[in-house]
Specification:
Layout: H1 3-16, H2 45-49, H3 55-67, E1 125-127, E2 145-147, H4 155-183, E3 187-193, E4 196-203, E5 209-210, H5 235-247, H6 276-287, E6 293-296, H7 300-315, E7 326-328, E8 332-335, E9 352-355, E10 366-368, E11 371-374, E12 382-384, E13 413-415, H8 437-442, H9 449-457, H10 460-471, E14 473-474, E15 483-485, H11 486-491, H12 506-532
Parallel strand pairs: 6-15
Antiparallel strand pairs: 1-2, 3-4, 4-5, 6-14, 7-11, 8-9, 10-11, 12-13
Helix pairs in contact: 1-12, 3-6, 5-6, 7-10
Length: 536
């Protein structure tokens, strides 16, 4: 009977230790491959939605999906599919630097200053080349848009900001249509949200709309905060697309379960390569990465230069587009996004949420009443930074779905770059071919020309102060405060093991776990001995 005590410990451990929820049987390597898949199992979305997995378990699983190196046994590669998800003959190279697959891990490109961050120019993407069949080996602009890899820190807050802005714009559209139908007259409605103007639309009594005066976004009025062209709605859409494009890892929500595709659509012998739960986990991981913050010099003179630079940044009107702070009505990140396009799971009945002001790896968003403050220095709006004298940023020929605007090609328009990580996310520009912030500022023409010329007119010491301020905006170590000094930065934790995943730190969680298991063992030992003394 003594074994009863051990059994109780094992049972307790089984129920307490992280759940490895699986949506289907783990993949197996072919008989001729003596390796193992990187993924030992797959997550069940219902386990996530029903609370059978903790936030830290989901985050940890998502980190594995982001950092892990996929191999053939996982389903890496897409012989019979383009990077855009269309069928092709399985006769193309397994890897292609231009048309992809070009990587085995998300962190292969997103790694500066650490996993989840931006990338050097060597990690650039040839956007749209992945859709070509046959693949192209040319890096000419007629085939693709050459883009630098952006960081994902703070991306959960950015997605929720875009959702709230979208909801506002769609509500304006609905109200305008209602008024037009009630009055029988066309109604012109200003499109403004969070103090940002996107032009106007005209609603007609017959239910049609004129969006020719909408500026900085698509005619559907959905703010798309990801990709430098502003073409991706959510982290989930971004992840689904990137998994297929870069790794040849196909999610079941876009392929196996889609009537337009089917099981093992890429014909690599592996079906259901990524479950709905897997994509949720990698989405939550990215959404819960710490928000960037600020690193201040230790000396008073250095701090004063940063303060002065911030004031000058506003004075020369950089802040008109790089808006220093925007308010979130709710601090919650809720997955999935209701505006996800077809091919991306969006069932609101199985949603998962967490509070971005208290949960994640940290630093957290700044709480503000019932909402939160986002200090991202963006307006999530597309702008044209080119004119007849300065056209450095207008080097693309493919529109990637961006509409023409006021007679200018859509390829000229890019989302306002988020600056909250600019201090340690070089290089700069959408190509990543500018190595200094000064160069990036001087390349602003078009809508940014006034601010650029005002910067040029500043004395050198004031220009240096602006750069010092921008350099202070950085990705910080996991778990740190939002604002730290340089000396505090060098002594702060640098791994996600120090992060807090809710009300308890990781160390506290392990202490509670150890205490629980010890008490369980003691009780098992006591009852085991008691039962052993009973005559048989």
């Amino acid at each position: 009977m003594f074994a009863l005590g051990i059994t109780l410990v094992i049972v307790a451990a089984f129920f307490y230790l992280p759940i490895q929820a699986q949506a289907h049987t783990p993949h197996q390597c072919p008989e001729t491959i003596l390796d193992q898949p990187m993924l030992s199992g797959h997550l069940d979305q219902s386990a996530i939605a029903n609370g059978k997995m903790t936030f830290s378990e989901i985050f940890t699983a998502g980190k594995l999906l982001f950092d892990g190196v996929f191999n053939l046994c996982d389903g890496q590669g897409r012989p019979a599919t383009t990077g855009g998800g269309l069928k092709r003959e399985p006769d193309e190279p397994a890897f292609s630097r231009i048309s992809a697959p070009d990587s085995n891990a998300c962190a292969g490109c997103h790694n500066q200053p650490r996993s989840g961050g931006a990338g050097d120019i060597v990690a650039n993407v040839f956007v749209l080349a992945q859709t070509l069949d046959p693949v192209t080996h040319s890096d000419e602009a007629e085939f693709s848009n050459f883009r630098n890899t952006l960081g994902m820190f703070g991306s959960g807050a950015i997605e929720m900001l875009a959702r709230e802005m979208t909801a506002d714009l769609l509500a304006i559209k609905t109200a305008a249509l209602y008024e037009a139908q009630q009055t029988g007259q066309s109604v012109t409605a200003p499109l403004e949200t969070k103090g940002i103007s996107f032009g106007s639309l005209i609603a007609n009594p017959d239910g049609s709309f004129d969006t020719s005066h909408c500026f900085g976004l698509d005619p559907d009025l959905i703010i798309k905060p990801f990709h430098q062209a502003g073409r991706v709605v959510s982290l989930r859409e971004f992840s689904n697309s990137a998994m297929n494009h870069h790794h040849g890892m196909q999610s079941e929500e876009r392929f196996d379960l889609s009537p337009d595709a089917g099981v093992d659509f890429d014909e690599d012998g592996i079906a259901h390569e990524l479950s709905i739960g897997d994509i949720t986990a990698v989405t939550i991981y990215q959404a819960a990465l710490g928000v960037p913050g600020q690193v201040l010099p230790d000396d008073e003179a250095g701090q004063e230069a940063v303060r002065k630079g911030e004031q000058l940044f506003d004075a020369i009107t950089c802040s008109s587009c790089h808006i220093p702070e925007l308010k979130l009505n709710s601090p919650l990140f809720v997955e999935p996004n209701p505006y996800n396009p077809v091919g991306n799971w969006s069932d609101q009945a199985q949603s998962f949420s967490f509070d971005m002001t208290t949960t994640g790896e940290g630093p957290y968003l700044e709480k503000d009443g019932d909402g939160a403050i986002i200090r991202a220095y963006t307006d999530l709006k597309r702008h044209d930074l080119c004119d007849t004298e300065i056209d450095y940023y207008c080097n693309e020929t493919l529109s990637q779905g961006r509409p023409d605007q006021e007679g200018k090609p859509g390829a000229n328009f890019f989302l306002t770059r988020k600056l909250w990580d600019v201090g340690n996310s070089a290089p700069y520009g959408h190509v990543g071919d500018l190595t200094t912030l000064t160069e990036a500022i001087l390349a602003h023409g078009g809508e940014g020309r006034v601010s650029r010329d005002a910067f040029v007119a500043l004395p050198p010491e004031d220009q240096a102060a602006v750069v010092s301020f921008l350099k202070s905006l950085q990705v910080l170590p996991a778990g740190s405060a939002r604002v730290v000094t340089q000396s505090e930065l060098t002594t702060s934790p640098t791994t996600t093991s120090m992060a807090r995943f809710g009300p308890f730190s990781t160390s506290t969680t392990f202490l509670l776990l150890g205490t629980f298991l010890l008490l369980t063992f003691a009780l098992g030992l006591y009852f085991g001995r008691k039962f052993k003394t009973v005559p048989e």
